[in-house]
Amino acid sequence: MKLVFAGTPEFAQVALARLHTAGFQIPLVLTQPDRPAGRGLKPQASPVKQFAVAHGIDVLQPRSLRLDGKFPDDAAQARERLLAVQPDVMVVAAYGLILPRWVLELPRLGCLNIHASLLPRWRGAAPIHRAIEAGDASTGITIMQMDEGLDTGAMLLVESLPIAADDSTASLHDKLATLGGRLIVEALELAACGGLNPVAQPEAGVTYAHKIDKAEAEIDWALPATQIERRLRAFDPFPGATGRLGGAVLKCWRGRVVPAAAGSAPGTVLEVGADGVVVACGEGALRLTELQKPGGRRLPAAEFLQGHAVTPGTVFETTSA
Fold it and tell me: pTM for the whole thing?
């Protein structure tokens, strides 16, 4: 089976590597244009491009695939290359560009998407983050037949995965990337023998995983401690949950929910010790166990406190103050 792969970040690179190892013919990869990154802001190739180049796979980086869009020349070049390749299928994973109808209809078997949720829950851009933030007990991978809607296509393969109590977006991402790589290989093997059975998504249970915004990083201490703790894990590694204490904006990476007597204003530091900094919340309290000061490294609370004094009774301010 001959396929074109479209994807950009590490999540997609894991799937591409699995497909390559499985022996699928991959003559072309589509990925986002190189972006400035690092302290020097030098253009950096995506993980998918890096893998493709290292394995001798042709790479195309159109800025758009819309023939009537802002970059019609890019789209026309992509169309010419895809027509020349004549793929049986296109596999899509976190690509970052909308696929117009001409792309969806070009491969013989259409376009299959590796989506990191149990559709129809968490359609959209940030399904891993939002599943953790919402306190979902499980998530998973859906291999979906793409259509022109936002993650609305028929489901081809689905497998669930429990969300551990200590899972961050980083750790859950890695688990789902591995699962996605395995499932897309299974899906293509079934497709080769006509064994896939598309199932329409149910109308009930649709939720949208809106893109993570840096403005969400600030901790609202008036929320219940359980909700704040989930946000710490959901926003790890990006954008990192933040709180202002003593004029410094600290990143709070990890915490444990602990009981607290009523009466303390949310954001008040209740205890300070080697095992963490206890902060009052709207309900209960949170013991912060991993913190980071501006320009510093992520540190366990005991190490953090050696270089950054925190006093009981101090109150976290808002970062906009």
Answer: 0.94
